[in-house]
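# step 3/5: fold
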Amino acid sequence: MNISEIPARVADIVYPRRCPVCDDAVDSIGRYICRSCEAAFEAVSEPYCLKCGKPLLDDSEKLCRGCEGGRHTFDRGRAAFKYDTYLKESIYRYKYGGRREYADYYVFRMTDILGSFIKSLSPDALIPIPLHKSRLKERGYNQAELIAQGLGKRLEIPVKCDVLIRSSKTEVQKSLNAAERQNNLKKALKISSDVVKLKNVVLIDDIYTTGSTMDAAASCLKEAGVLRVFFAVLGVADKY
Protein backbone atom coordinates (compact mmCIF):
# COMPACT_ATOMS: atom_id res chain seq x y z
CA MET A 1 0.00 0.00 0.00
CA ASN A 2 1.30 3.43 -0.94
CA ILE A 3 2.03 5.74 2.02
CA SER A 4 -0.23 8.39 0.49
CA GLU A 5 -3.16 5.96 0.74
CA ILE A 6 -2.84 5.44 4.51
CA PRO A 7 -5.04 8.40 5.61
CA ALA A 8 -7.86 7.23 3.32
CA ARG A 9 -7.62 3.65 4.58
CA VAL A 10 -7.70 4.85 8.21
CA ALA A 11 -10.76 6.97 7.42
CA ASP A 12 -12.46 3.91 5.88
CA ILE A 13 -11.91 2.02 9.15
CA VAL A 14 -13.07 4.81 11.47
CA TYR A 15 -15.88 6.03 9.21
CA PRO A 16 -16.80 3.13 6.88
CA ARG A 17 -17.93 4.36 3.47
CA ARG A 18 -21.41 3.38 2.33
CA CYS A 19 -22.05 1.22 -0.69
CA PRO A 20 -23.83 3.19 -3.47
CA VAL A 21 -26.15 0.23 -4.09
CA CYS A 22 -27.18 -1.28 -0.74
CA ASP A 23 -26.10 1.69 1.43
CA ASP A 24 -24.53 -0.66 4.01
CA ALA A 25 -20.92 -0.25 5.03
CA VAL A 26 -18.73 -1.45 2.15
CA ASP A 27 -17.69 -5.04 2.84
CA SER A 28 -13.94 -4.52 2.23
CA ILE A 29 -11.60 -1.73 3.31
CA GLY A 30 -10.42 0.43 0.43
CA ARG A 31 -13.32 -0.42 -1.90
CA TYR A 32 -16.04 1.90 -3.21
CA ILE A 33 -18.78 -0.74 -3.46
CA CYS A 34 -19.65 -4.13 -1.96
CA ARG A 35 -18.43 -7.10 -3.99
CA SER A 36 -21.97 -8.49 -4.11
CA CYS A 37 -23.34 -5.19 -5.49
CA GLU A 38 -20.87 -4.64 -8.32
CA ALA A 39 -23.23 -5.86 -11.04
CA ALA A 40 -26.29 -3.90 -9.86
CA PHE A 41 -25.92 -0.90 -12.17
CA GLU A 42 -26.47 -1.75 -15.84
CA ALA A 43 -24.02 -0.08 -18.20
CA VAL A 44 -25.33 1.39 -21.45
CA SER A 45 -24.10 -0.73 -24.35
CA GLU A 46 -24.62 -0.58 -28.10
CA PRO A 47 -26.90 0.15 -29.76
CA TYR A 48 -27.45 3.60 -28.28
CA CYS A 49 -28.58 6.93 -29.74
CA LEU A 50 -25.69 8.63 -31.52
CA LYS A 51 -26.94 12.01 -30.30
CA CYS A 52 -27.89 11.58 -26.62
CA GLY A 53 -26.73 8.07 -25.73
CA LYS A 54 -30.14 6.60 -24.86
CA PRO A 55 -30.27 2.80 -25.37
CA LEU A 56 -31.91 1.68 -28.62
CA LEU A 57 -33.77 -1.56 -29.25
CA ASP A 58 -32.71 -2.06 -32.87
CA ASP A 59 -29.19 -2.04 -34.35
CA SER A 60 -30.57 -0.41 -37.48
CA GLU A 61 -31.63 2.70 -35.55
CA LYS A 62 -29.24 5.64 -35.22
CA LEU A 63 -31.29 8.12 -33.20
CA CYS A 64 -33.86 7.76 -30.43
CA ARG A 65 -37.35 9.19 -30.78
CA GLY A 66 -36.42 12.22 -28.69
CA CYS A 67 -33.50 13.15 -30.95
CA GLU A 68 -35.16 12.70 -34.34
CA GLY A 69 -35.61 15.97 -36.20
CA GLY A 70 -32.45 17.58 -34.84
CA ARG A 71 -34.13 19.62 -32.14
CA HIS A 72 -31.26 19.55 -29.62
CA THR A 73 -28.72 22.35 -29.17
CA PHE A 74 -25.93 20.20 -27.73
CA ASP A 75 -23.69 18.30 -30.15
CA ARG A 76 -23.59 14.85 -28.61
CA GLY A 77 -23.61 13.04 -25.27
CA ARG A 78 -23.16 9.70 -23.55
CA ALA A 79 -24.29 8.06 -20.33
CA ALA A 80 -22.56 5.39 -18.27
CA PHE A 81 -25.61 3.57 -16.88
CA LYS A 82 -29.31 3.02 -17.46
CA TYR A 83 -31.42 4.95 -14.97
CA ASP A 84 -33.14 1.91 -13.47
CA THR A 85 -34.42 1.29 -9.94
CA TYR A 86 -30.99 0.62 -8.44
CA LEU A 87 -29.41 3.74 -9.90
CA LYS A 88 -32.47 5.87 -9.17
CA GLU A 89 -32.36 4.99 -5.47
CA SER A 90 -28.60 5.46 -5.36
CA ILE A 91 -28.70 8.92 -6.94
CA TYR A 92 -31.57 9.95 -4.65
CA ARG A 93 -29.44 9.20 -1.57
CA TYR A 94 -26.44 10.85 -3.22
CA LYS A 95 -28.33 14.08 -3.88
CA TYR A 96 -30.69 14.31 -0.93
CA GLY A 97 -29.23 11.99 1.70
CA GLY A 98 -25.76 13.43 2.03
CA ARG A 99 -24.02 10.39 0.52
CA ARG A 100 -21.34 12.43 -1.24
CA GLU A 101 -18.91 9.51 -0.95
CA TYR A 102 -20.88 7.73 -3.69
CA ALA A 103 -19.18 10.12 -6.13
CA ASP A 104 -15.94 8.13 -5.83
CA TYR A 105 -17.56 5.02 -7.28
CA TYR A 106 -19.54 6.98 -9.88
CA VAL A 107 -16.35 8.65 -11.11
CA PHE A 108 -14.44 5.36 -11.12
CA ARG A 109 -17.04 3.68 -13.34
CA MET A 110 -17.67 6.71 -15.55
CA THR A 111 -13.94 6.89 -16.23
CA ASP A 112 -13.95 3.22 -17.18
CA ILE A 113 -17.02 3.44 -19.42
CA LEU A 114 -16.86 6.99 -20.80
CA GLY A 115 -13.23 7.99 -20.33
CA SER A 116 -12.18 7.20 -23.91
CA PHE A 117 -15.23 9.00 -25.32
CA ILE A 118 -14.55 12.13 -23.26
CA LYS A 119 -10.84 12.19 -24.13
CA SER A 120 -11.62 11.72 -27.83
CA LEU A 121 -13.51 15.02 -27.79
CA SER A 122 -10.34 16.90 -26.74
CA PRO A 123 -12.34 19.24 -24.48
CA ASP A 124 -10.92 22.51 -23.20
CA ALA A 125 -12.85 21.95 -19.97
CA LEU A 126 -15.46 19.94 -18.11
CA ILE A 127 -18.36 22.10 -16.90
CA PRO A 128 -20.76 20.79 -14.22
CA ILE A 129 -24.42 21.75 -14.43
CA PRO A 130 -24.85 24.31 -11.61
CA LEU A 131 -27.26 24.40 -8.69
CA HIS A 132 -29.03 27.52 -7.49
CA LYS A 133 -27.28 28.92 -4.40
CA SER A 134 -30.26 28.16 -2.17
CA ARG A 135 -30.35 24.51 -3.26
CA LEU A 136 -26.57 24.29 -2.88
CA LYS A 137 -26.93 25.55 0.69
CA GLU A 138 -29.60 22.91 1.42
CA ARG A 139 -27.53 19.98 0.09
CA GLY A 140 -24.08 21.21 1.04
CA TYR A 141 -22.59 20.29 -2.34
CA ASN A 142 -23.34 20.18 -6.04
CA GLN A 143 -23.58 16.51 -7.06
CA ALA A 144 -22.58 17.29 -10.66
CA GLU A 145 -19.54 19.25 -9.52
CA LEU A 146 -18.23 16.37 -7.38
CA ILE A 147 -18.44 14.08 -10.40
CA ALA A 148 -16.83 16.67 -12.68
CA GLN A 149 -13.95 17.27 -10.28
CA GLY A 150 -13.32 13.54 -9.99
CA LEU A 151 -13.40 13.01 -13.75
CA GLY A 152 -11.19 16.02 -14.33
CA LYS A 153 -8.57 14.64 -11.97
CA ARG A 154 -8.62 11.15 -13.46
CA LEU A 155 -8.68 12.29 -17.10
CA GLU A 156 -6.41 15.31 -16.57
CA ILE A 157 -8.92 17.77 -18.00
CA PRO A 158 -9.54 21.24 -16.47
CA VAL A 159 -12.83 21.70 -14.62
CA LYS A 160 -14.57 25.07 -14.79
CA CYS A 161 -17.19 25.50 -12.07
CA ASP A 162 -17.60 29.27 -12.47
CA VAL A 163 -18.68 29.43 -16.11
CA LEU A 164 -22.38 28.61 -15.72
CA ILE A 165 -24.64 29.80 -12.90
CA ARG A 166 -28.27 29.08 -12.13
CA SER A 167 -29.63 32.57 -11.64
CA SER A 168 -33.13 31.54 -10.57
CA LYS A 169 -34.42 28.66 -8.50
CA THR A 170 -36.36 26.28 -10.75
CA GLU A 171 -38.82 23.55 -9.89
CA VAL A 172 -37.41 20.03 -9.48
CA GLN A 173 -37.12 18.69 -13.03
CA LYS A 174 -37.98 15.04 -12.42
CA SER A 175 -41.70 15.71 -11.88
CA LEU A 176 -42.17 17.73 -15.10
CA ASN A 177 -42.88 16.73 -18.70
CA ALA A 178 -40.68 17.84 -21.61
CA ALA A 179 -42.53 21.10 -22.32
CA GLU A 180 -42.63 22.03 -18.64
CA ARG A 181 -38.91 21.29 -18.28
CA GLN A 182 -38.07 23.57 -21.18
CA ASN A 183 -40.14 26.40 -19.75
CA ASN A 184 -38.76 25.75 -16.28
CA LEU A 185 -35.18 26.25 -17.46
CA LYS A 186 -35.82 29.24 -19.69
CA LYS A 187 -33.51 32.06 -18.63
CA ALA A 188 -32.51 30.13 -15.48
CA LEU A 189 -28.95 29.47 -16.66
CA LYS A 190 -26.51 32.28 -17.35
CA ILE A 191 -22.83 32.74 -18.16
CA SER A 192 -20.89 34.09 -15.19
CA SER A 193 -17.35 34.33 -16.56
CA ASP A 194 -15.42 34.90 -19.77
CA VAL A 195 -15.62 31.80 -21.96
CA VAL A 196 -13.88 33.20 -25.04
CA LYS A 197 -11.00 30.71 -24.72
CA LEU A 198 -13.35 27.73 -24.38
CA LYS A 199 -14.25 26.35 -27.78
CA ASN A 200 -14.98 22.72 -26.97
CA VAL A 201 -16.53 21.67 -23.64
CA VAL A 202 -18.18 18.70 -21.97
CA LEU A 203 -21.10 19.29 -19.61
CA ILE A 204 -21.29 16.96 -16.60
CA ASP A 205 -24.47 15.98 -14.74
CA ASP A 206 -25.96 13.02 -12.89
CA ILE A 207 -29.01 12.24 -15.08
CA TYR A 208 -30.11 12.85 -18.66
CA THR A 209 -33.86 12.62 -19.25
CA THR A 210 -35.32 14.83 -21.98
CA GLY A 211 -32.26 16.95 -22.73
CA SER A 212 -33.84 20.22 -21.60
CA THR A 213 -31.07 20.98 -19.12
CA MET A 214 -28.29 20.19 -21.59
CA ASP A 215 -29.99 22.23 -24.32
CA ALA A 216 -30.37 25.24 -22.02
CA ALA A 217 -26.73 25.03 -20.95
CA ALA A 218 -25.53 24.49 -24.53
CA SER A 219 -27.52 27.50 -25.74
CA CYS A 220 -25.92 29.75 -23.12
CA LEU A 221 -22.43 28.53 -23.93
CA LYS A 222 -22.81 28.74 -27.71
CA GLU A 223 -24.25 32.23 -27.51
CA ALA A 224 -21.12 33.17 -25.56
CA GLY A 225 -18.84 31.80 -28.26
CA VAL A 226 -18.31 28.12 -27.42
CA LEU A 227 -18.30 26.15 -30.67
CA ARG A 228 -19.10 22.60 -29.56
CA VAL A 229 -20.92 21.39 -26.43
CA PHE A 230 -20.98 17.72 -25.48
CA PHE A 231 -22.10 16.01 -22.28
CA ALA A 232 -21.35 13.00 -20.11
CA VAL A 233 -23.72 11.81 -17.40
CA LEU A 234 -23.97 9.03 -14.87
CA GLY A 235 -27.40 7.76 -15.88
CA VAL A 236 -29.84 8.07 -18.78
CA ALA A 237 -33.61 7.67 -18.41
CA ASP A 238 -35.89 6.24 -21.10
CA LYS A 239 -38.35 9.12 -20.70
CA TYR A 240 -38.78 11.55 -23.64
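# step 4/5: annotate
The domain at 43-236 is CATH 3.40.50 (Rossmann fold).
# step 5/5: archive (pending)
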